[in-house]
């Protein structure tokens, strides 16, 4: 295990302050007392440490500000009924983090360094992990930025890795209608769609505003070449369930983020009598399937919300209802409950996904 040298904060939150925050943990608003840090000097990773949470001094010419070399991950720590604290598939996040780094010409962080940093921060800040009531958890944000001060288009020669964490309540999981944007795409062939980098999310904001203006909760993204194949929805992966028992999701094609929750649901599918299918799905086939009743449920999935039911799709030509009563389907509810129960230790973990930290 990679050791991160601890430099304790001289002014951590008091027990009373922490209790007040945990009574209503607003997503991404409050942060634990410490952060993980490490630097890459162009040759190797070093200076692994944990220090007080606080602002950084970053040069205005740091490459991240000008050329966008930045990647991140998102995972959670869960408190179980016996008070213990557990992580869910951190090695999978570490592996994706390394792939994102390679795509953006950044030095991959060893999986051991990633997992060790996450584990040591969560163990140190275990008191910040909320109770499981209301699906509260500790949201963990590992990220890496190009920190070398240099103006010039080339891979930077200096990088900073960090892990911060925030106690959170349940994210949005209310049923949503998706907007099929006619104007924007999330990613293009050969682009950075399969990497988890900030630029992908910045580019999605205009379409998200458009969706809201059209009374929809999220965007239904199509491919960047032909604009006819479904890729993702909002900031999550997309799935639907057919009347003949298939759990279908768009196949990974280089433009779609390989979600950890997506992969987990595909593995859980057979336990619910579903056949997992990864395939190219056209907008026409999706809408025809909804209209004919072949598609009976639809859902979005990701770390923050876990599973968000989809009740319909809206395009400039009209709306297509998956369900008309606005309620999530029974299979969607079953899948979500099963995954969440594994994460909180209420169900058996047949895949060895969870690991105790504290």
UniProtKB/TrEMBL annotation:
<comment type="similarity">
    <text>Belongs to the class-IV pyridoxal-phosphate-dependent aminotransferase family.</text>
</comment>
<keyword id="KW-0100">Branched-chain amino acid biosynthesis</keyword>
<comment type="pathway">
    <text>Amino-acid biosynthesis; L-leucine biosynthesis; L-leucine from 3-methyl-2-oxobutanoate: step 4/4.</text>
</comment>
<protein>
    <recommendedName>
        <fullName>branched-chain-amino-acid transaminase</fullName>
        <ecNumber>2.6.1.42</ecNumber>
    </recommendedName>
</protein>
<dbReference type="Pfam" id="PF01063">
    <property type="entry name" value="Aminotran_4"/>
</dbReference>
<dbReference type="InterPro" id="IPR001544">
    <property type="entry name" value="Aminotrans_IV"/>
</dbReference>
<dbReference type="InterPro" id="IPR005786">
    <property type="entry name" value="B_amino_transII"/>
</dbReference>
<dbReference type="InterPro" id="IPR036038">
    <property type="entry name" value="Aminotransferase-like"/>
</dbReference>
<keyword id="KW-0808">Transferase</keyword>
<keyword id="KW-0032">Aminotransferase</keyword>
<dbReference type="InterPro" id="IPR043132">
    <property type="entry name" value="BCAT-like_C"/>
</dbReference>
<dbReference type="GO" id="GO:0009098">
    <property type="term" value="P:L-leucine biosynthetic process"/>
</dbReference>
<comment type="pathway">
    <text>Amino-acid biosynthesis; L-isoleucine biosynthesis; L-isoleucine from 2-oxobutanoate: step 4/4.</text>
</comment>
<feature type="modified residue" description="N6-(pyridoxal phosphate)lysine">
    <location>
        <position position="196"/>
    </location>
</feature>
<keyword id="KW-0028">Amino-acid biosynthesis</keyword>
<keyword id="KW-0663">Pyridoxal phosphate</keyword>
<dbReference type="GO" id="GO:0009099">
    <property type="term" value="P:L-valine biosynthetic process"/>
</dbReference>
<dbReference type="GO" id="GO:0009097">
    <property type="term" value="P:isoleucine biosynthetic process"/>
</dbReference>
<dbReference type="InterPro" id="IPR033939">
    <property type="entry name" value="BCAT_family"/>
</dbReference>
<dbReference type="GO" id="GO:0004084">
    <property type="term" value="F:branched-chain-amino-acid transaminase activity"/>
</dbReference>
<dbReference type="InterPro" id="IPR043131">
    <property type="entry name" value="BCAT-like_N"/>
</dbReference>
């Amino acid at each position: 295990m990679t050791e991160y040298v601890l430099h304790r904060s001289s002014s951590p939150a008091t027990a009373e302050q922490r209790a007040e925050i945990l009574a209503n943990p607003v997503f991404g608003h409050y942060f634990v007392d410490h952060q993980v840090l490490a630097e890459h000097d162009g040759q190797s990773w070093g200076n692994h440490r944990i220090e007080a949470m606080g602002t950084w001094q970053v040069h205005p010419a740091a490459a991240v500000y000008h050329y966008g070399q930045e990647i991140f991950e998102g995972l959670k720590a869960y408190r179980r009924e016996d008070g213990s604290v557990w992580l869910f598939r951190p090695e999978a996040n570490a592996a994706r983090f390394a792939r994102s780094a390679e795509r953006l010409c950044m030095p991959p962080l060893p999986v051991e360094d990633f997992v060790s940093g996450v584990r040591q921060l969560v163990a140190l800040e275990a008191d910040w992990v909320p109770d499981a009531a209301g699906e509260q958890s500790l949201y963990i944000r590992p990220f890496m930025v190009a920190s070398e001060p240099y103006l010039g288009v080339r891979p930077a020669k200096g990088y900073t890795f960090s892990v911060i964490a925030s106690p959170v309540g349940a994210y949005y999981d209310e049923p949503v209608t998706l907007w099929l944007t006619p104007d924007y795409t999330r990613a293009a062939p050969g682009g950075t769609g399969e990497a988890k980098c900030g630029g992908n999310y910045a580019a999605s904001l205009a379409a998200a505003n458009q969706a809201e203006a059209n009374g929809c909760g999220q965007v239904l993204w199509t491919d960047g070449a032909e604009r006819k194949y479904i890729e993702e929805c909002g900031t999550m992966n997309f799935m639907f369930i057919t009347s003949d028992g298939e759990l279908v999701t768009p196949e990974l094609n280089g433009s779609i983020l390989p979600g950890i929750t997506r992969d987990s649901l595909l593995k859980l599918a057979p336990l619910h009598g579903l056949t997992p299918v990864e395939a190219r799905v056209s907008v026409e086939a999706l809408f025809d399937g909804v209209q004919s009743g072949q598609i009976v449920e639809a859902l979005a999935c990701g770390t923050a919300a876990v599973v968000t039911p989809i009740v319909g799709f809206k395009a400039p030509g009209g709306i297509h209802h998956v369900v008309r009563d606005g309620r999530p389907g029974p299979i969607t509810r079953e899948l979500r409950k099963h995954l969440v129960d594994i994460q909180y230790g209420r169900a058996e973990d047949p895949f060895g996904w969870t690991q105790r930290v504290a």
